[in-house]
Amino acid sequence: MEKLRVFSVKIPEKVYKELILRVPEGERSNFVRDAIMEKLEKTPKPDKILELENRVSRVESELSEIKKYLADLELLTYGREKANPHTFCIDELDHKIVDYLLHYKGATTPELAEYLKTNRWLVLNRLRRIEKTSRKQLGKPIVKYYAGEKSGKKKAWWINEEISEV
């Protein structure tokens, strides 16, 4: 048997009286020790929880990577999995950007900045974040940047209508 250590604990008077009634005098130490051991066995170790969280996170990132590769190979279809572009918005500014893109089908960052009366770099960063999070979750971005000319616009952002449910 392991070396035993002395451990004192304060308990309510009511619990103490109950312990005296139910457990014989020579067995109280063993009873308390067993109760603590039983409770410790049910309580997960913090390092195990952290390890499990890390494993789940790793699995999620690997799954999103696999989805991305399948989407690139066009093996993953989006017919049933259309996404709402607003799910990738974090605030009102993002919602306005997506609304504008949905209405006009595409826009340049200066157009969006003028419409929103804000800095075009802020708009650009928001569009990049929406693109990145949607690519991570869906395998394909919900908004895409196209540097060439499309519908009379050059260097503009476009809603990916192939996976957009709106």
Task: Explain this structure.
By secondary structure, this protein is mainly α. Helices cover 55% and strands 10% of the residues. It contains six helices and three strands; from the N terminus they run ααααβααββ. The protein has a three-stranded antiparallel sheet with strand order 1-3-2. Helix 3 packs across helix 6 and helix 5 crosses helix 6. The longest helix has 27 residues. It is elongated. The termini are far apart. About 3% of the residues have low confidence.
For this entry, give a set of tags.
55% helix, mainly alpha, 6 helices, three-stranded antiparallel sheet, 166 residues, single chain, elongated
Whole-number mean pLDDT: 86
Based on CA atoms alone, the radius of gyration comes out at 29 Å
| Molecular shape | elongated
SSE-based structural type:
mainly alpha
Summarize the structure.
By secondary structure, the chain is mainly alpha-helical. The protein has helices at 13-22, 28-42, 46-72, 92-104, 109-116, 120-138; strands at residues 106-107, 143-150, 153-159. Helix 3 packs across helix 6.
